[in-house]
């Protein structure tokens, strides 16, 4: 599904978008509060790691300004309806509502594809991302203390989840 407003369009993420997607991912990595990853992977790895459905870019004035996608949490069939959320917004566009638009769209599409639980792992210092997810129906289910190291520093990550009200009920 394609969502369009007068100035913003949400479209399925395609391989030709990946240069911009990787740049935005690298901007998130540079904050030190987005991921434990050190660099954006090459397209083949990114493509394999993410579900083939529910991956989108936000396009404003012909430029990709954000993206969202799902990663399966497990290869076991019993978890086929559980996925992890990634939402990244370009530095110059954060706080403009694009994250909420992408996450809302991602939730709708995930449910259309049989996903009953979405989860997100967010550094506790990333209060804007925690607030965004809570506005979209996620709840904090715990704090994973010292779950991984970034630049030699242990980091704590909130685990948030959103249970669908229409899939798997």
Descriptive labels:
8 strands, single chain, alpha+beta, 8-stranded mixed beta sheet, 169 residues
Describe this structure in words.
The structure is a single chain. The chain is about 25% helix and about 35% strand. The longest helix is centred in the middle third of the chain and has 15 residues, at about 100-110. With about 170 residues, it is of the alpha+beta class. It is globular. An 8-stranded mixed sheet has the order 1-2-3-4-5-6-8-7. It starts with a strand and ends in a 6-residue tail after the last strand. The chain is built from 4 helices and 8 strands. The model has no long low-confidence stretch (mean pLDDT about 95).
């Amino acid at each position: 599904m394609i969502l369009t407003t007068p100035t913003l369009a949400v479209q399925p993420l395609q391989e030709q978008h990946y240069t911009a997607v990787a740049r935005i991912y690298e901007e998130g990595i540079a904050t030190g509060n987005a991921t434990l990853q050190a660099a954006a992977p090459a397209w083949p790895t990114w493509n394999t790691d993410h579900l083939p459905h529910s991956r989108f870019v936000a396009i404003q004035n012909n430029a990709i300004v954000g993206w969202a996608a799902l990663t399966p949490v497990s290869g076991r069939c019993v978890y086929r309806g559980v996925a992890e959320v990634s939402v990244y917004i370009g530095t110059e566009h954060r706080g403009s509502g694009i994250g909420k638009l992408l996450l809302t769209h991602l939730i709708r599409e995930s449910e259309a594809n049989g996903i009953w639980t979405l989860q997100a792992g967010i550094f506790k210092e990333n209060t804007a991302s925690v607030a965004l997810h809570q506005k979209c129906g996620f709840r904090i289910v715990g704090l994973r203390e010292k779950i991984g190291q970034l630049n030699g520093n242990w980091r704590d990550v909130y685990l948030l989840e959103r249970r669908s009200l229409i899939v798997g009920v």
